[in-house]
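Anyone up for a design puzzle?
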């Protein structure tokens, strides 16, 4: 009986990150996978890993980066990369198959993908930029940043590398680039700064495009222990590097530099502990889209070059925060005039979406229990 075909290989991961895709910094990463089988006693006795620089090579059984061959081992966690040294920006497509306790081979897994990021500060060409029009001694409006740039029709790849001293929310042509929240996360900003990388090719269009970023105080300048602010710096700052590659081999880079513009908008303050205040009257429709009228916006302030930052820039080492579910309240009470309590029936970490009707300037306050 051929039991091998019953074994399913899934959840391929690199450096404990699911390949969807993962962006890593280790030139010799560890690879892992899980095995599913319906029969009792099913186990792995050997494995084979294949890795290639593109998906076509794997599909034709011609891996150009690594072919482990059949390895007699029950290990399916933290298999160390043992062939060609991987380089910054390198893309890796990989798959695995196993042999079971009966010596039967499984089918290859689905192809997984990971990419190496910028491996050292010197790989960054961008500068840190910031808006200095706020009083940094107390919570202040979130700065909005924008820049327009042009893209040719034969674009092949587009990877965005982005970090912040503070928190960022980034968009291209009016749409958020991801569902990630509270990025890049909290570190000792004097020692280490995390960045994220996104494949944004599908976000771009031929001709004029616009990048938009909102920064929040986060843990960098916001209130922390003892109601103190500015433990790491006075203003939230942005670092961004968009690398474009065309089919004819041309490369272009869009950087955070002095060409960006900035202003403040409807987010009057946003703090980890004090919450957020939003004034809908100050919305700027289209601010993160091409051809927006930004003549009233001011030039950004340019800080240090990323390559000269004392803190090490590293790819984010854990999955970001994302929305995983949406709940509706199970009960509503009205204990007194103009006060309503919504009970969601369980503890949760999240935020609310409200639809209200009122006059301009009317204040609504949400308190979370």
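Challenge accepted. My sequence:
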């Amino acid at each position: 009986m051929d039991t091998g075909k019953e074994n399913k290989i899934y959840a391929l991961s690199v450096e404990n990150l699911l390949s969807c895709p993962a962006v890593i910094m280790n030139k010799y990463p560890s690879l892992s996978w899980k095995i599913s089988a319906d029969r009792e006693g099913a186990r792995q006795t050997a494995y084979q890993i294949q890795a290639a620089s593109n998906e076509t090579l794997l599909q034709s059984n011609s891996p150009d980066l690594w072919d482990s061959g059949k390895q007699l081992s029950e290990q399916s966690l933290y298999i160390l990369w043992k062939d060609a040294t991987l380089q910054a920006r390198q893309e890796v497509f990989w798959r695995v198959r196993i042999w079971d306790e009966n010596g039967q081979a499984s089918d290859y897994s689905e192809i997984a993908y990971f990419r190496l990021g910028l491996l050292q500060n010197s790989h960054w060409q961008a500068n840190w930029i910031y808006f200095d029009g706020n009083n940094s001694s107390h919570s202040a409006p979130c700065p909005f940043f924008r820049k327009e740039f042009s893209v040719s029709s034969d674009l092949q790849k587009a990877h965005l590398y982005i970090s912040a001293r503070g928190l960022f929310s980034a968009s291209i042509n009016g749409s958020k680039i991801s569902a990630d929240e509270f990025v890049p996360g909290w570190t000792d900003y004097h020692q280490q700064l995390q960045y994220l990388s996104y494949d944004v090719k599908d976000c771009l269009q031929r001709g004029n495009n616009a990048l938009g970023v909102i920064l929040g105080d986060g843990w960098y300048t916001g209130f922390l222990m003892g109601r103190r602010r500015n433990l790491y710096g006075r203003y939230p700052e942005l670092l961004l590097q968009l690398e474009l590659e065309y089919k004819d081999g041309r490369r272009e880079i869009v950087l955070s530099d002095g060409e960006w513009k900035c202003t403040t908008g409807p987010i009057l303050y946003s703090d980890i502990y004090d919450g957020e205040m939003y004034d809908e009257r100050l919305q700027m429709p289209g601010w993160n889209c091409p051809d927006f009228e930004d003549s009233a916006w001011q030039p950004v302030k340019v800080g240090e070059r990323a390559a000269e930052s004392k803190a090490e820039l590293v790819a984010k080492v854990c999955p970001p925060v994302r929305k995983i579910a949406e709940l509706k309240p199970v009960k509503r009470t009205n204990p007194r005039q103009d006060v309503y309590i919504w009970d969601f029936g369980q503890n949760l970490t999240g935020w609310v979406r409200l639809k209200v009707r009122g006059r301009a300037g009317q204040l609504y306050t949400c308190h979370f229990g």
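A detail worth pointing out: The mean pLDDT is 94.
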